[in-house]
Structure to design on (299 residues):
């Protein structure tokens, strides 16, 4: 009996140690160490070999479906981002993120079949590498039911300040620039010109989001994941301008966990038919599932 009791105690200690060593979710995001795998977005996905080259962060990704017969989120709908105490978010699409990075000897991430992703993801540029803690993944197409709150964000005002009663986030516009598809800038007086809003166009919005970290942590855990901010409408692929390709139409709100406040400064793009992209633009806040790989125990 004494031997059995000792063995049982040893099992409990080992189990507790294993539980303590396992990375805990960060703002509801599944969490692993770089080099390990996560089941996320319908994929068994590993992120490994985090390294720096030409002011960019590179990681090697390998993924296969988490469930046989189930269709994971399409590779073209997946985005990766850098996690840490960064001045502003740095994200890139899973596919095509290395196109603008010259002189890198890598095999960019590709999806040779719908059930496989393999290759390197490029993120950056990031010159202050000391702030980097890891890499995250999410998809603007993965939306937790019942969590979407949408706001109008029309030219020339953009998003009016919100309060945290809707989503836990305070959001406001910090800048707004509107353009025709050819790059010609639109100024507010254009609202009186009946010919100004013809064809296609795009709008670049600077947004600031903030929240109390403790509340955001609790809300994210209860929701099952962090929030993302989406701007619409948008176009697939590179879109109408290099700026839209760089900024994208979404950003994940996943702050460095040691901070007492949540504060995000991001730029997003709306694009398409010019009336919809400028006069009927929206900013939405949506809960999503995310995965995070970190390089040290500080998360």
């Amino acid at each position: 009996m004494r031997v059995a009791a000792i063995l049982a105690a040893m099992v409990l200690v080992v189990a507790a140690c294993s539980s303590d060593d396992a990375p805990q979710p960060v703002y509801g995001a599944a969490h692993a160490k770089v080099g390990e795998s996560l089941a996320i977005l319908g994929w068994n996905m590993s992120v490994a070999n985090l390294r720096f080259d030409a002011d960019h962060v590179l990681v090697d990704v390998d993924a296969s479906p988490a469930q046989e017969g189930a269709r994971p989120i399409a590779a073209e709908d997946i985005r990766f981002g850098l996690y840490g105490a960064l001045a502003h978010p740095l994200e890139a699409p899973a596919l095509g993120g290395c196109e603008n990075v010259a002189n890198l000897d890598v095999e960019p991430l590709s999806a040779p079949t719908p059930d496989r992703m393999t290759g390197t993801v490029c993120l950056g540029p990031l010159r202050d590498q000391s702030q980097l803690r890891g890499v995250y993944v999410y998809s603007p197409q993965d939306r937790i039911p019942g969590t979407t709150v949408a706001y109008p964000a029309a030219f020339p005002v953009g998003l009016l300040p919100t309060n945290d009663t809707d989503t836990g986030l305070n959001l406001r516009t910090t800048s707004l620039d509107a353009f025709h598809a050819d790059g010609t800038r639109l100024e507010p007086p254009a609202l009186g010109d009946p010919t100004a809003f013809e064809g296609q166009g795009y709008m670049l919005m600077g947004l600031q989001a903030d929240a109390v970290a403790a509340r955001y942590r609790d809300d994210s855990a209860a929701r099952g994941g962090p929030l993302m901010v989406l701007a619409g409408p948008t176009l697939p692929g590179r879109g109408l301008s290099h700026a839209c390709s760089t900024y994208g139409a979404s950003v994940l709100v996943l702050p460095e966990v040691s901070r007492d406040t949540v504060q995000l400064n991001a730029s997003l793009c709306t694009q398409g038919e010019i009336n919809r992209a400028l006069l009927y633009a929206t900013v939405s806040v949506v809960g999503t599932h995310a995965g995070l790989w970190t390089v040290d125990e500080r998360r």
In short: The chain has two domains: 30-139, 149-290. The chain has four helices and 18 strands. The first strand starts at residue 30 and ends at 33.
